[in-house]
Each structure stands twice: as C-alpha cells, then as structure tokens.
Amino acid sequence: MAEGGAGARRRAPALLEAARARYESLHISDDVFGESGPDSGGNPFYSTSAASRSSSAASSDDERERPGPLGAPAAQPPRSADAQGPEDDEAGAGWSNALRDRPPPHFEDTGGPTRKMPPSASAVDFFQLFVPDNVLKNMVVQTNMYAKKFQERFGSDGAWVEVTLTEMKAFLGYMISTSISHCESVLSIWSGGFYSNQSLALVMSQARFEKILKYFHVVAFRSSQSTHGLYKVQPFLDSLQHSFDASFRPSQTQVLHEPLIDEDPVFIATCTERELRKRKKRKFSLWVRQCSSTGFIIQIYVHLKEGGGPDGLDALKNKPQLHSMVARSLCRNAAGKNYIIFTGPSITSLTLFEEFEKQEIYCCGLLSSRKSDCTGLPLSMLTNPATPPARGQYHIKMKGNMSLICWYNKGHFRFLTNAYSPVQQGVIIKRKSGEIPCPLAVEAFAAHLSYICRYDDKYSKYFISHKPSKTWQQVFWFAVSIAVNNAYILYKMSDAYHVTRYSRAQFGERLVRELLGLEDASPTH
C-alpha cells in the first residue's frame, strides 16, 4: 500500500509538467488579477495531485501524451458502436466519416500592449489610455450644457456651479470606488457608517456630488441625425473602442460571450427578497469579444431592448439569427487575421462559421440542439444513442474544413469547428476521474472557456456597484468598469507592475485616490 502511494507521488511531478506544457501550448496566461486563492492558480480542468492518478496507475505518461496517427480514424480512442453505421443521405450534403488532417490557422502576431509604459506609470496613466482628458472635457461641456437647458426649462438652481475637469475626475473616482467597497450607494462615503471614507469625503461635499450626479451627461441633446436609443452614450462607446484597438493587439484565441454584469455577488448574498423584487429588469444585453490569453476585452457590443420588436432583448435570447448578428458586429474588425473564436451554443452555427471562414476568421463552438441553429448539420450526429457510450468516446464527421464532434463525458457534448484538426487528440485531466480522451478541439474549448469563467468570477467583483435607473447610465458605468479592468491588465503586462505589484483591488484603490487628487497616498495592504 505504501509502495503504491510512493509510486503515485513519483508520478505527480510528471503529471504536473505535462499539464503545464499542454496549458501553455493553448496560450492561456496566468491569473491576470494577481490574487491568491483556490480559483487563481492553473487551469481547473487539470489536476496535479497524486490522487487523481490512483485510478489509472497502469497508464504510463508516454501513453497519455502519445498522439494518434494522423489521418487514421481507426487509431483514435474507441467510439460508440452506433457511431459506426453506414453512410446515409448526409453524404449527399457533404458530410463524411473520412477524416483528414489540416494545419492550424497561421498566426504570427505576438499580441500584447502596443505602447510601452514607463516603470513610473501610475494607475490613472493606464486608465487614461482609454478615458483621456479630452473625453473627460467633453463630459464637462455636455454636463454644463444639460444643466443650463434644464434650468431654463424647469427653473434656476441657485446651488449649481459649472463643473470643472478636476471635479469630473473626482466624480468618476467616487463612482469607481463602489467597485472596491461593493456598496451600491456611493453616498455612503459621506454617511459616517460602515462604508464611509473620511479621506475621500473631504475632497468634495456630498451636496456638490449630488448636483453633478443630477446633471451628468455624455451627450446632452439628441442630434437631428441620431435615431439610436443609446445616442447619449454611443460617442463614449466609440471612443472607448478606438482606444482598445489602439492600445492592445489580441492573441489568436478569443471568446464571444456575455460577461457577468447582472448583479454584484455580494449584494445578491446580502439583500432581502423584497429588495430583489424591486430591481428593474435590465433593458439591454452586453456582449464582448475577449482575448482568452489575457482577459483583455477587445470589443463591446450593446444590444438595446427597444420595445417588443424583432430586435428586442427577449427575441435576442431565443433566436439564433440575432445572436449571429451580434457575432458579426463583434468580429467586424477581425477579418483577415486568422483569429480563432470560441462561441457558446447560441452563436454556434454552420452558416455563420462558413461565412467567417471566408473572412479568415476560424471558430470552435459548443452546439445545442435547443439553442443553436442546426441548419445543415447531419441529424444522426444530433440525436443521442439509446445506450450511452463510455466516457471519452467520440464520433466525428467532416465537411470541407468543418468538423462536427460528438463527445461523451457523463453526457453528450457536440462541437463544431474549422480551427482544429479532427485527427489531433487531446486529453482533459479531472481531479477525481483522471484523464478523459477527447479531440484537441474539445480540450482547447474547455481550457479557454474555463479561463474566461475564472476571469468573470473576479471581473464581476470589480464592477461599479452604482445602479442608476436610466439605461444609458447603466451602459456607461459598465463600460467604465470594463475600461478599468482593461487598464489593470495592461498594468500587469508593463514594467510598472514589477515596481509596485498592485493586486486588482489595490490598483482600484490607487486609481480612485489619483482621480481625487490624493495620489500621494498608498493603497491599503
């Protein structure tokens, strides 16, 4: 018994090395948030403990890493018996059991920040890569214009004085502070209670802050040409998108998804049921294209619910063609770059993937017969067999460069991809069940999506907690939250990080103090 335990301990380093090598080959970075904890280490799909190997001790490390012969379907792991049926009408549609190897999309761009920041760069320096002074000055002008017109219509406000650039920075700093304190009411800073902060409260009076909040605008008035429901925030979103493009080159692998923006998890855990019922339903859907190597959000797309029309949010959640519209919008700047895009079931479709392939955009997506547009896919691959196969068994059909994979792991999982060779094998290492064979596309999908899930777990903790009633303001503060997170990612990749080594929370605290003019104060450790 002791000898078996010693053998397992000896195999653990080899398993760790193999997992790390495979993890690095998929271009997944370490935790960008610089925080310790059970969810901030390596890829959770990989286990490095000796216990995870106890059930498969007879399998050698060489056998685990050995790839199958290229172009030889018979050399793949055993597949379910019913998957070996004769060719049917699907052959006429171009789908075949004959698999062929294909090289991965060529990609040479190194990716990363486009500008080298000095070691002395501060938190606000990184933030202003996305929200520079000229954008803030426009907010000052628009806010003062709105205040003037408002008072002309509804009566003079004797307490109002035109806002300045310094005050606008402080106003943003106060709002961003709620992402650190996780307190929904920014006015708690002046309350004297648990969330009060005397050093911040001295910079601006509560009365002055409330006046700026009352009149705050990014675009004061609708132009005659403006018909979009987000006209009050669209110029800021366009400016932010331009800054994202100018500041960062993404890696080859990216993900399209909806980030976790519904509620702060601390609020959900502490609020009463009555408070939850009082919440207004969000009137928009926010989607992003995100670099899966760093977590940097490359592009934002906001779909506004405008009545009960076919483009409303309710329709968007049920119609795959509208999700395809979202995907096209998010990838409009990605053509010709050989990016690999990972998608969820609502976006994955043969039509969309073939359209993207013509633009040199390659995809790997999870399929669902309920949520996905399955037009053009072979029916035999979308129905489950009467007898479940063994874990790790899979069947693949191919059409051109497109592979449709049905893989079993305590349930049937289907993937559509033109980014990975169907004959290349991968493995998923589970802490309890050991190694589960799978096609390389499945391993890549699991690894990249797990990274985004871990990013979202931390990302949601640093959203601005202020909850305005107006939709354009909700979109604005979400966009500012994304800008702050992106700023921290660039900070982590710069020389400045090696000097100060702030965690995400410390970076947020430092940014708030710098925006309020308290830059000489250091963050709480």
TrEMBL record:
<dbReference type="Pfam" id="PF13843">
    <property type="entry name" value="DDE_Tnp_1_7"/>
</dbReference>
<feature type="domain" description="PiggyBac transposable element-derived protein">
    <location>
        <begin position="122"/>
        <end position="488"/>
    </location>
</feature>
<dbReference type="InterPro" id="IPR042423">
    <property type="entry name" value="PGBD5"/>
</dbReference>
<dbReference type="GO" id="GO:0005654">
    <property type="term" value="C:nucleoplasm"/>
</dbReference>
<protein>
    <submittedName>
        <fullName>PiggyBac transposable element derived 5</fullName>
    </submittedName>
</protein>
<dbReference type="GO" id="GO:0004803">
    <property type="term" value="F:transposase activity"/>
</dbReference>
<feature type="compositionally biased region" description="Low complexity">
    <location>
        <begin position="68"/>
        <end position="78"/>
    </location>
</feature>
<dbReference type="InterPro" id="IPR029526">
    <property type="entry name" value="PGBD"/>
</dbReference>
<feature type="compositionally biased region" description="Low complexity">
    <location>
        <begin position="47"/>
        <end position="59"/>
    </location>
</feature>
<dbReference type="GO" id="GO:0098038">
    <property type="term" value="P:non-replicative DNA transposition"/>
</dbReference>
<feature type="compositionally biased region" description="Basic and acidic residues">
    <location>
        <begin position="99"/>
        <end position="109"/>
    </location>
</feature>
<feature type="region of interest" description="Disordered">
    <location>
        <begin position="30"/>
        <end position="118"/>
    </location>
</feature>
